[in-house]
Amino acid sequence: MTVTIVGSQLGDEGKGGVVDLYGDAADVVARYQGGDNAGHTVVHDGETYKLSLVPSGAVRGKIGVLGNGCVINPRTLFDEISTLQEKGLDPDVRVAERAHVILPFHRVLDGIEEDVKSESDQEVGTTGRGIGPTYEDKAGRRGVRIGDLLDPDVLRERLEYVVPQKRALVEDVYDIAVEDLDDPDAFDVDALFEEFREFGQRLEEEEMTVNASTFLTDAMADGQTVMFEGAQGTIIDIDHGNYPYVTSSNPTAGGAAVGTGLSPGVIADGEVIGIVKAYLTRVGSGPLPTELGGVVGDTPGYDEQGDGENEELATYIREEGGEYGTVTGRPRRVGWLDMPMLRHSARVNGFTGLAVNHIDVLAGLDEVKVGHSYDHEGEEIFTIPSTTEQWGECEANFRSFDGWPEVDWEAVAEDGYDAIPENARTYLEYLADELDTPIYAVGVGPGREETVVVEDPYE
Ligand code: GDP
Ligand code: IMO
Ligand code: MG
C-alpha cells in the first residue's frame, strides 16, 4: 500500500511535516517531480531541517528516492547530503537514471528569461533554480539525464550538442555576451564535462543511481512500504494549475505514477492525501481572488504597499505563520481559504483524506473567512476557470466563521480531535463536507507532535 502526499493549493501547505508524520511507517520516501525549487521543513528533536531536494524522509533514516520525473542539480544534491551528514545523519538517497540534470546554464537562463519577462510585467517569480529550462530541454529531447553522467562519451556528445545552442540563445536572442555573465563556465563544454563527469563518478561509486521503476517495485515486493512526496502544489501544476504562473512539472497525483515508473493502479490502490493550509499563501505572481492585501512585485497590478484592515490582517497572518519563502526568503502573499480552488484540486487528485495545517495560526481572530464560490460574468461558479485571465476576473463570495481561541495546542494534539476548539471543528467539518473527503490530520503547530492525528493511512 502506498501513500501519496499532494499539495492542494500553491505549495508550502506543510507537506514536509505530514511526510514526516506519516513517513514513520514508510521504508522508502520517493519524490516524483520538481527539483530544488521545493522547500520542505521538518522539525525533529528540536532541530529544524530545511530540505529542497532530498526527500523529507531522509531525516529519519528512510531510503529517499528521486524519481525519473524529478530534475536534479547534483551540486544541490551533494551539498544537502553533506549538510545532513554534518548534523550527524546518514542519508541514503537514490537517484533515478532517467531523471534529468539541471546544468548551470539552466539556472542562468531561468534568470535571463525572468528578467526579460519582467520588462512587460510577465515574470512568473520563479525560484531561479533552472527548473523550467531543464524541463524544456527534457521535452525538447536535448536534455542530459543522470544516466548520461555515468558514460563519458555520451555525456560529452550531449553537451556538445546542447551547449552551443544555449550559447547562441544568450548571445543572439538575448543579446548578452556570455563572457559578461557571472558564470561564463556555465556555457563551456569542457568545464561542464569535467564537473559533471565527476558527479557521475561519485554517483556511481556511492551506488546512488537506480531504475526507479524496478527499485520501487522490488521494494514493494519485499514488503517495504512506499510513500510518495509531492513537492509544489496543484495550482502550480503545469497542466492543472494557473498557467503560466506555474512550475514546469506535475505535482498532482497522476505525476506520482509517471514520475516513478509505477502504474496508476498502484497509486490508486493506496491513499492520496491532500495537504491543505487553513488559509492561503502564494510565492510569485498570478491571480488570487481571496487575497488579503498584496505583496509588491508579486501581486498583479499592486505597485505600492497599501494599508487598511485587510493589509493588517495579511501582515498578522504572515508573521504568525512565518510566511516567508523557504528557498528564497520572499514574503508570501496571504489570503483566505479558497474553496473553488480546493474543489478543483480534490477532483484532479482524487483525495482519499485531508491534512489541514496551520489552524493555530488563525487562532485569536474574531472571524475567519472562506471564499465559498466566485462571481464570474454574473454567474456564481464553484470551481476555478481554465484560463488565468478568467480567474483574474473572479470575485470571491465569502462565508464567515466565528474565530477560535488560542489554546495549548500541544495538549490538544495529545487529547485528540474533540479537544480542538469547537469553532475550529466547525470550520474543518465545512471543509470535509464541501470536498467530500475525511480529515485525516490537523496541524496545530510546526512540530510533528503538534498534529492531531485522526487517521493513520498505513493502519
Ligand atoms: P512544504 O513546502 O509544503 O513542505 O511546506 P514548508 O515547509 O515550505 O512550509 C510550511 C511551514 O509551516 C514550515 O515552517 C512548517 O514548520 C510550518 N508548519 C507546518 N504545519 C504547521 C502547522 O500546523 N502550524 C504551524 N504554525 N506551522 C506549521
Ligand atoms: P514547495 O515544495 C511554493 C513557485 C514559484 C513560482 C513558480 C515557478 O516548497 O511547496 P519554479 O522555480 O518552480 O519554476 O517557479 O512556482 N514555486 C513554489 N511555490 N512552494 C514551492 O515548493 C514552490 N516551487 C515553485 O514561486 O511562482
Ligand atoms: Mg515549501
TrEMBL record:
It catalyses: IMP + L-aspartate + GTP = N(6)-(1,2-dicarboxyethyl)-AMP + GDP + phosphate + 2 H(+). The active site is at D12, H40, K138. Binds 1 Mg(2+) ion per subunit. Pathway: Purine metabolism; AMP biosynthesis via de novo pathway; AMP from IMP: step 1/2. Substrate binds at T326, V327, T328, G329, R330, P331, R332. GTP binds at residues 11-17, 39-41, 332, 358-360, 443-445. Its EC number is 6.3.4.4. GO terms for cellular component: cytoplasm. Mg(2+) binds at D12, G39. One of its GO terms (molecular function) is GTP binding. It comes from the Archaea. Plays an important role in the de novo pathway of purine nucleotide biosynthesis. Catalyzes the first committed step in the biosynthesis of AMP from IMP. HAMAP family: Adenylosucc_synth (MF_00011). Homodimer. This is Adenylosuccinate synthetase.
